[in-house]
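Sync notes, pocket subgroup
Present: LS, DG
LS reminded everyone that the earlier model was apo-only. Rerun requested with calcium ion included. Inputs:
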Amino acid sequence: MVWWKEGVIYQIYPRSFLDSNGDGIGDLDGIRRKLDHLAELGVAGMWISPFFKSPMKDFGYDVADYCDVDPMFGTLDDYDRLLAEAHARDLKVMIDWVPNHSSDQHHWFQEACKSRDNPYRDHYIWRDKKPDGGVPNNWYSVFGGSAWEWHEPTQQYYLHSYLKEQPDLDWRNPVVEQAMLNTLRFWLDRGTDGFRIDVIHRIAKHPDLLDNPVLDEDSAYFGQEHRHDENHPDIHGYLKRIRAVLDEYDDRAMVGEVYLFDPAEAGAYLGDGDELHLAFNFSFLCAAWSGKAFADEVAQAEKSTPATGWPTYVLSNHDQPRHASRYTFGDDAPDDDRKAKLLAAMLITLRGTPFIYYGEEIGLRNGHVPEDRVQDPVYWSLGPMAGRDPERTPMPWGPGPHGGFTTGTPWLPVDASAATRNVDAQDKDPHSVLHFYRALIALRRARPSLSMGTHRTQAVNESLFIYRREADGETTSVVLNFGDTPTHLPDPLQGAPVLLSSHPDPDPTRLAPYEARIVGG
Ligand code: GLC
Ligand code: CA
């Protein structure tokens, strides 16, 4: 089995998964203790968000040492133990690699700041001020404000696409490239199965750092066309060399965060099978609630994935509101899980690698985080709506204090819903979201048409999305009712055996509101 195509990958935000030592922060040993949960879910592997040495200004996406574990998360020995125990359960482990920027506490940057002729100076991107004293160009940080920070001691600006504590590395410097490739080898040599690559579309900028065209003066970062600060064609050369490093090893894979809105551009990051193995497709994160909206995104993904490539689908991650909350509206009851199950059925049965975000297997909603508990700096720089804490609240394992996540004080509050919405409770309820995810993933594993088959959309309208998957003479049809009223099941599907339904008692001729049904044939 090609694990990264056929299998399902589970994203773990390590701070929030399980705290093993009572300091309120999840850690590697916590993940290790919950491997049976992943094995039972049936996923092929996990992607663990950063756990490297870091001052945690961006909660680990500011890396101070690419080759060490932050003591907050454990030690390299803990990592090795986690990896060995994951492999013993046939689970792959992908880790996060953050090549666009380091932390300002990385020793490269600390050296670079000492003087303009320091050997590490050119690991980063420095420029003089303009003759009028202004910043070198009009680029903004994704997290707000100018992308340039003045460094008084050496009288130059440095570039940071994110926080000022995250200076951008200069990939045009071959020494940087070699050093970064060696950080990959460090983890590959330990047996790591692959990487999720952070903001890969940002690692090459225009060599002359030209101004971006301005479309709307008042909208800062969002008012610019990002023609020169991202997606420079030179990235493809870097990616081919990154791929060559992975190809020095057996059966490894990488998935890139290509945060571009043109799916064809994102598809190009797969090269001709010689760049990324997979590129994230974030289109579901913004899709409206209708059969047609999701079907359109699937059509787009099918069209823009090169023949040698393979699509991916994501409903939630650590940067966006959880989908169970995004699609809760009107008079939806907070414990109504029909929509969560419907989307799960779609995610797991589409042609492409599904990524599950921890907690979505129990239909977790955004957690409530009062302002005095806010952690994410983006809440303050871009506004409360942009804050990412609600989707990062701790995993509720059981009904006890803090959902069984910690014996101490959790770094973010565990949502009050944990009293009833938790893994233990759903494990005991055969109609829970958790049982449905397990059944879906088991079905994907058992049916080649679902894991590897072709995709053909059969019917679409506001409420219905029907598609058929086919491989080696096996056919599976998926029928999704996005509507809040019952709908007629098309005649040819009425006699087909029901393999799985989100409804406890599926009607042979009709779909219930929000029902997902998977049938053979
Ligand atoms: C990516 C990560 C996000 C992080 C940013 C900067 O978008 O997913 O969490 O803040 O990169 O590293
Ligand atoms: Ca801990």
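DG: The longest helix spans residues 174-189.
LS: The CA atoms of residues 174 and 385 lie 39 Å apart.
Action: DG to write up.
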